[in-house]
Amino acid sequence: MTQHFIVIGNPIAHSKSPEIHTLFGAQAGLDICYQRQYCPDDAASFTAVVEAFFHGGGMGANVTVPFKQVAYECCAARGGLSEHAKVAGAVNTLLLDKALLAKGVSPVEALYGDNTDGQGLINHIKRLGWPLNGARVAIIGAGGAARGVVLPLIEAGIETLTIANRTVSKAEILVDELSTASEKINQHTIQTYATAALSGDFDIIINATSIGLSGETLPLADALNCQYAYDMMYGRELPFLQHFAARGAQTSNGYGMLIGQAALSFERWTGRAIDVAQATETLQAHSFKN
Ligand code: NDP
């Protein structure tokens, strides 16, 4: 029987998720149908779309901009949230809590939210062979993407974490909120800086800003160095990566993170593990270019 999945967003036409999950389905030998779902940008419409989909037998959904926080609220009021979703304050994966379904709860009331974005990044960095255990890590950016990776980075055993942002007050607020949300994070001292004031030597620097969309470049200090530079964006030339590549760093864009978070969603829904390296190779060769 065909299993149905959707990705809900606005806009949604650009989403690569259907290609990625269709490939995963083929790799796992499952009959799946994964479609883009446009939704008007308001909470009531989002809830209506989700309820109709899961009442109609849907198995799982991804959530993208601008609905990750709305999805969080939706699940908090129903079947619950994973620790990663709670700390991120955002949901990118909707599934049904099987234990609640077994008790006779309706699909809508069994709606459970997870967030696989951060772990998708960690898994990609591990596939790249970059050492995380004991690493000195800096994140540039203090928005939703940065928020989602802090707990997975700490769980991966990093030594120090620094967060820099154009608006330094937002980085400070983020650290306060994360420290309140998670004891694991609270046990770490996280330093904050304005982006232009960030300097020194790091093992890994992660660009979690959306600056790549604007064509502007980040103001990076001359005395800022790293061995590995990661940009969460993908699909275009990224000045952030060019800057550190010219200084001898290994670099990667966020394409592998995109595949990685999708693989984790797929595994949550179907219980089937994905060979991410093989899927990435196939997608790069056929469906879309890096
Ligand atoms: P948000 O809008 O929540 O945050 C944007 C961040 O970028 C803020 O820290 C903001 O700083 C900073 N920023 C924006 N413009 C500039 C600029 N001109 N100069 C300096 N800083 C700037 O976005 P998200 O956190 O949701 O997403 C960030 C990036 O991560 C996006 O490019 C997104 O595509 C990517 N991403 C990739 C994923 C993947 O799978 N590869 C998954 C999730 C996200 P300030 O606070 O000062 O405004």
From TrEMBL:
Q: Which GO molecular function, any one, fits this protein according to its record? A: shikimate 3-dehydrogenase (NADP+) activity
SDH C-terminal domain mapped to chain residues: 254-284
Task: Give the EC number(s) under which this enzyme is classified.
Answer: 1.1.1.25
Database matches in Pfam families: SDH_C (PF18317), Shikimate_DH (PF01488), Shikimate_dh_N (PF08501)
Transferase in keyword set: no
Q: Could you name the active-site residues?
A: K68 (proton acceptor)
Q: Where is the Shikimate dehydrogenase substrate binding N-terminal domain?
A: 7-94
Q: Which residues form a coiled coil?
A: none
- Enumerate the UniProt keywords alphabetically: Amino-acid biosynthesis, Aromatic amino acid biosynthesis, NADP, Oxidoreductase
Q: Which InterPro entries match?
A: Aminoacid_DH-like_N_sf, NAD(P)-bd_dom_sf, SDH_C, Shikimate_DH, Shikimate_DH-bd_N, Shikimate_DH_fam, Shikm_DH/Glu-tRNA_Rdtase
Has the keyword DNA-binding been applied to this entry? Answer: no
Q: What are the binding positions for NADP(+) in this chain?
A: E83, G141, A142, G143, G144, A145, N165, R166, T167, V168, S169, K170, M232, G254
What pathway does the annotation place this protein in?
Metabolic intermediate biosynthesis; chorismate biosynthesis; chorismate from D-erythrose 4-phosphate and phosphoenolpyruvate: step 4/7
All copies of domain Quinate/shikimate 5-dehydrogenase/glutamyl-tRNA reductase, residue ranges: 131-210
| Biological function | Involved in the biosynthesis of the chorismate, which leads to the biosynthesis of aromatic amino acids. Catalyzes the reversible NADPH linked reduction of 3-dehydroshikimate (DHSA) to yield shikimate (SA).
Subunit text: Homodimer.
Q: What is this protein called?
A: Shikimate dehydrogenase (NADP(+))
Can you name the source organism? Psychrobacter glacincola
Gene for this protein? aroE
